[in-house]
Amino acid sequence: MKLIAFVCLCALVAADEEQHGEPTAPQLAGILTNLYRRFLHTAAPKQLEMQDALHIEWRQGKMAGPPFRSTVKGTFQGIDHDVPTFSFVNSLITPAQKGYFGRWTMHENSDLLMTYHYGGSVKIHMMTESGIHKEVILGNPAYHKDHNAKFVVMIPHGTYAIFESLSEDESTFHSYVAIPAWDPEHSHYYTEKEMEAKFPAHSELFDELDHPQVHHEPGYDENRFDSHGDEDDSGSHGHRGPRGRFAGLKKFFKH
After folding, report:
1. Carries keyword Nucleotidyltransferase (predicted)?
2. Which end of the chain has fewer beta carbons closer than 10 Å to its terminal beta carbon, N or C?
3. Overall pTM surpassing 0.90 (yes/no)
4. What percent of the chain has pLDDT over 70?
């Protein structure tokens, strides 16, 4: 219900802005940021506290902290000039989120080292240029009975990648290091439809990632901190829709 109220507030703000003229991008970002913080203050105070401590906010299409770029430059294979050796940023993946709202990324030059810090686990999908699909779970192995999660995951340059939150209730705080430093000129983004055109053999995967349901992994104990043990309304451990503080989200994404 809290999320529904938040969405309604956003709609009311948008309607009000239409009456007074179309808002600028900075104005709209400020309005949505303020509403989102008010929502988190009630629904997820711990997340808000951590965001503020790490100065994480909406930056360039994602929730991220201030970026750091190394002042040391070096030469890397495939690059004809010296570039900063690495860049670093803290970031946040919200519950049930998939990619930067559904986009795959591919960097021509930088390897990406992702490190898990706190919160829900995330499945990272990787696709090579030859169409080989690999899945790795970024998270705490203690939360997985089959111990298949990793604290650190490397995404090689030239690899298409997208992340998929495995949690309906917890955000994921992580950081990533790009080696050499992230260069937006060499970064490329793809929708699920564009990826399906490139790799039609994996059309089922792209269709699943295009929908908001959380796909739970066997052995993943999302309610490990819940002493009451919420009941599973679906009666199974397969694919389930969002519940908890994000209950009701699915209805807004129906096609």
Report:
1. no
2. C
3. no
4. 60
**Can the peptide bond before residue 200 be classed as cis, meaning omega within 30 degrees of 0?**
no
CB 56 within 8 A of CB 90: yes
- Predicted confidence (pLDDT) per residue in 73-83, tens digit: 999 988 888 99
Between vectors from CA 79 to CA 74 and to CA 82, what angle results, nearest 5°?
30
Amino acid 232: pLDDT: 40
* Sequence-separated (6 or more) residues with CB below 8 Å from residue 164: 98, 99, 122, 123, 124, 125, 209, 215
Query: Nearest-CA neighbor of 110 among 89, 94, 140?
Result: 89
Distance, CA of 189 to CA of 100 (rounded, Å): 9
* Range 119-142 average pLDDT: 93
| Pair type for strands 133-138 and 149-150 | parallel
142-181 burial, b if ≥16 CB within 10 A, otherwise e? ebbeeebbbeebebebebbbbbbbbbbbbbbbbbbbbbbb
Query: CA gyration radius for the chain?
Result: 19
CB 61 within 8 A of CB 100: yes
Give the helix/strand (H/E) hosting 53. helix 45-53
Say what the alpha-carbon torsion angle 92, 97, 102, 105 is, to the nearest 10 degrees: 30
Contact residues for 124 (Cβ-Cβ < 8 A; gap 6+): 114, 135, 136, 137, 138, 153, 155, 161, 162, 163, 164
The tens digit of pLDDT for each residue in 64-117 reads: 778 899 999 999 988 888 999 999 988 888 777 776 556 899 999 999 999 999
The residue ranges of every structural domain in the chain are 1-43, 56-215
**CATH topology classification for 56-215:** Jelly Rolls (2.60.120)
Beta bridge partners of 123: 137, 164
> How confident is the model over 29-50, as pLDDT tens digits?
555 555 555 545 454 567 677 7
